[in-house]
Write a structure and sequence with these properties.
single chain; 280 residues; three-stranded antiparallel β-sheet; 10 helices; globular; binds pantoate
């Protein structure tokens, strides 16, 4: 397995593979890899001849008061996991390699970026879209793998890919959860033992909402019932609970067809997000 820090080297390597007829699967990450990332890597491994994982904590997607400096960076463990999963190359650039002196360009997927998490994390999705486009340009993959846990991110990247006519297939993969239902996230390690014990109640509240969809309630009543359930979690502060159209991310007007129920909740200093499909 190669560890590559230069964009030009990464680009030449994937170019050689492509000329040899070997498809490239790409898993962009910020490191601190867990079983959720491992499931993306395994899928990329099954579907491609070559697999590249990027490990880059992207400063552009953190707000000034967010956790950029304390975000975990256990690179030695990430490297071991990637080697065990038979990754061909890790792309691990410096901030200066991705954003050299004078970098000015920003990618914005208008509308989709300002709702839900975007309303609470101004500029976050601009940072995500910009870095993902730049990583795509470097690795030029045939397929790129993203978790459904970051559902809004996945939809924004799908939209950007379609709007710009990028030749990469975006593969959305199911959320990996602990046995108690908590969605795996690199940020779960910030939770105290007490917070970790109550955190699965977020997923339980969403599941309750999905069950409610089978009864004759309105979209508004469903979201309200989930909000009330989450308010029972000690110390939980709700950023949002929304039942939306999975493509436009706009609030569902009626309980009809395939919808998505999303929530963001702060427990202590940790912000948790989760979402589940709702079929009516
Ligand atoms: O989901 C993440 O880890 C990040 O947002 C991503 C897609 C790697 C971009 O920095």
């Amino acid at each position: 397995m190669r560890v590559i820090t230069r964009a030009s080297e990464m680009a030449s390597l994937t170019e050689v593979w492509k000329r040899q007829g070997r498809s490239v699967g790409f898993v962009p990450t910020m490191g601190a890899l867990h079983e959720g990332h491992a499931s993306l890597i395994r899928r990329a491994r099954r579907e491609n001849r070559r697999v590249v994982v990027s490990v880059f904590v992207n400063p552009a997607q953190f707000g000034p008061k967010e956790d950029f400096t304390r975000y975990p960076r256990p690179f030695a463990a990430d490297r071991r996991l990637c080697a065990a999963l038979k990754v061909d190359a890790i792309y691990h650039p410096t901030v200066n390699e991705v954003y050299p002196e004078g970098f000015r360009t920003v990618v914005e997927v208008a509308g989709l970026s300002d709702l839900l998490c975007g309303a609470f994390r101004p500029g976050h999705f601009k940072g995500v879209a910009t870095v993902v486009l730049k990583l795509f340009e470097t690795a030029r993959p045939a397929r790129a793998y993203f978790g459904e846990k970051d559902f809004q991110q996945l939809q924004i990247i799908r939209r950007m890919t379609q709007d710009l006519g990028l030749k990469v297939k975006i593969v959305g993969c199911p959320t990996v959860r602990g046995k108690d239902g908590l969605a795996l996230s690199s940020r779960n390690q910030y939770l105290s033992p007490f917070e970790r014990a109550i955190a699965p109640k977020l997923n339980a509240a969403l599941k309750m909402g999905a069950r409610l969809a089978r009864r004759k309630v309105s979209a508004g009543q469903l979201a309200k019932a989930v909000r009330l359930e989450i308010m029972k979690i000690p110390e939980a502060v709700i950023d949002y609970v929304s039942l939306v159209d999975p493509e436009t991310l706009e609030d569902a007007k009626a309980l009809k067809g395939r919808l998505r129920l999303l929530a963001a909740v702060r427990i202590g200093k940790t912000r948790l997000i989760d979402n589940i499909p709702v079929s009516c």
